[in-house]
Design a protein that fits this description.
Elements: H1 2-24, H2 38-49, H3 51-81, H4 88-117, H5 119-141, H6 152-168, H7 172-180, H8 185-188, E1 190-191, H9 204-214, E2 218-223, E3 226-232, H10 236-240, E4 256-258, H11 263-269, E5 275-279, E6 285-290, H12 291-298, E7 304-306, E8 311-314, H13 320-327, H14 338-346, E9 355-358, E10 361-369, E11 372-380
Parallel strand pairs: 4-5
Antiparallel strand pairs: 1-6, 2-3, 5-6, 7-8, 8-11, 9-10, 10-11
Helix pairs in contact: 1-3, 1-4, 1-5, 2-5, 3-4, 3-5, 4-5, 6-7
Length: 381
């Protein structure tokens, strides 16, 4: 009975370790703010912060657990089939066949499929199970030869370190701007849920109406969740096209960049491009990055400005978690930013001068730039 309990416990660990391996790399850091439990949020942030050490811990732990599980299963299998007159070779073959099926279903395929579909939920569940393995093996990861984890981005990081050291004493602002180049694409991009996108079946007439409303220079075209390409306002063919013609004819390609790559590397590899599709490690479209997003971070506006005891001005990209801390008030919505909360409440991007009231908080849209709410007055009522 004891061996059976140990076997199922090991399967449980295998399920969680395998699921976490997929979930941790399918979740953006900004999405972690949706986790309601502060304890799990802190653990998930730590796992995300030390991705390489986390991956090392998961791989080593999962290998150990699966090996141990195979040993226990073999012992149970031998006990069950011990009295039957079956050739030893056939017995071993059946043992391996059954265990492989079990570990594939419960330790590989199922957890990974669930993690791909529900990465944040899976990460929330797995974090508490995985964290002890991470704490145990993190110190060991430091002794792994550097070539195991060395990336081309490390060399860029060394250059940035030297640049910061030179700038920090003479010009703090310059040092700050250099440090921004450490930022990864996923931290600057506009998430898929917040972009202004078109469908391939939309007409040229509708596209021109969208351009008049938002005034962007490029618009992504999505077929469901699949990224097809981009429509550029500068495309002469669109201007000369029949208003009822479908926009899919005018879709052009644009560079696709990984969500976890450094912004500096993108600027270096694509010096002549200003619009990028952002994809995760599975090739799924997760958002867009524009040159404007990068330049905006070089001259950031203060995120919060108090204008009274109970009122303040915030930017639409202020994280909800930060606003909860500032207002000392829990907001019962799983949205990453203030703008996404307002869009969730209204079902659209509101215009300047509009008021939205919610749970004792009044939002007033002060300034809007295209599809971004740049200044929002927040008042406790």
């Amino acid at each position: 009975m004891g061996k059976i309990l140990i076997f199922f416990l090991l399967l449980f660990f295998s399920f969680n370790l395998s699921g976490c391996e997929t979930a941790i790399f399918s979740t953006l850091r900004a999405e972690l703010e949706k986790i309601k439990s502060r304890l799990i949020l802190r653990i998930a942030e730590k796992l995300k912060q030390f991705e390489k050490e986390t991956l090392f811990s998961l791989l080593v732990s999962n290998t150990f657990v699966n090996t141990f599980t195979a040993s226990i299963f073999s012992s149970l299998f031998s006990s069950f089939w011990g009295d039957l007159r079956i050739p030893y070779g056939l017995k071993q073959f059946i043992d391996i066949l059954i265990f492989t099926a079990i570990i594939l279903v419960f330790g590989e395929v199922s957890p990974k499929l669930i993690a791909v579909k529900y990465p944040l939920k899976m990460l929330s569940i797995n974090s508490l199970v995985v964290y002890p393995f991470f704490l145990l093996l993190k110190p060991v990861a430091k002794f792994i030869p550097t070539f195991s984890f060395k990336e081309s981005d490390d060399a860029i990081g060394d250059v940035l370190d030297e640049m910061e050291d030179l700038a920090i004493t003479s010009d703090p602002a310059l040092s700050s701007r250099i440090s921004i180049l450490r930022t990864k694409v996923g931290e600057l991009m506009t998430p898929r849920d917040n972009i202004v996108a078109l469908k391939p079946t939309d007409t040229v007439k509708y596209f021109l109406e969208v351009v008049g409303r938002y005034s962007y220079s490029s618009y992504p075209v999505l077929d469901g969740s699949e990224f097809l390409g981009v429509l550029r306002v500068s495309d002469v063919r669109i201007i000369e096209a029949d208003p009822e013609e479908k926009v899919e004819r005018f879709v052009s390609e644009c560079p696709a960049v990984p969500v976890n790559v450094l912004v500096l590397k993108v600027l270096k590899d694509y010096p002549d491009d200003a619009f990028f599709a952002v994809i995760d490690e599975y090739g799924n479209f997760v958002g867009v990055l524009t040159l404007w997003d990068v330049l905006e971070r070089f001259h950031p506006a203060p995120p919060v400005k108090w204008i009274g005891k109970k009122s303040l001005i915030v930017s639409g990209d202020l994280p909800i978690h930060d606003m909860e801390l500032i207002l000392r008030k829990r907001i019962p919505f799983d949205t990453p930013t203030v703008q996404s909360l307002i869009m969730e409440l209204t079902g659209r991007i509101p215009d300047e001068g509009e008021f939205i009231e919610f749970e004792g908080i009044k939002f007033e849209i002060i300034e809007k730039e295209f599809a971004k709410l740049t200044k929002i007055k927040v008042e406790l009522t």
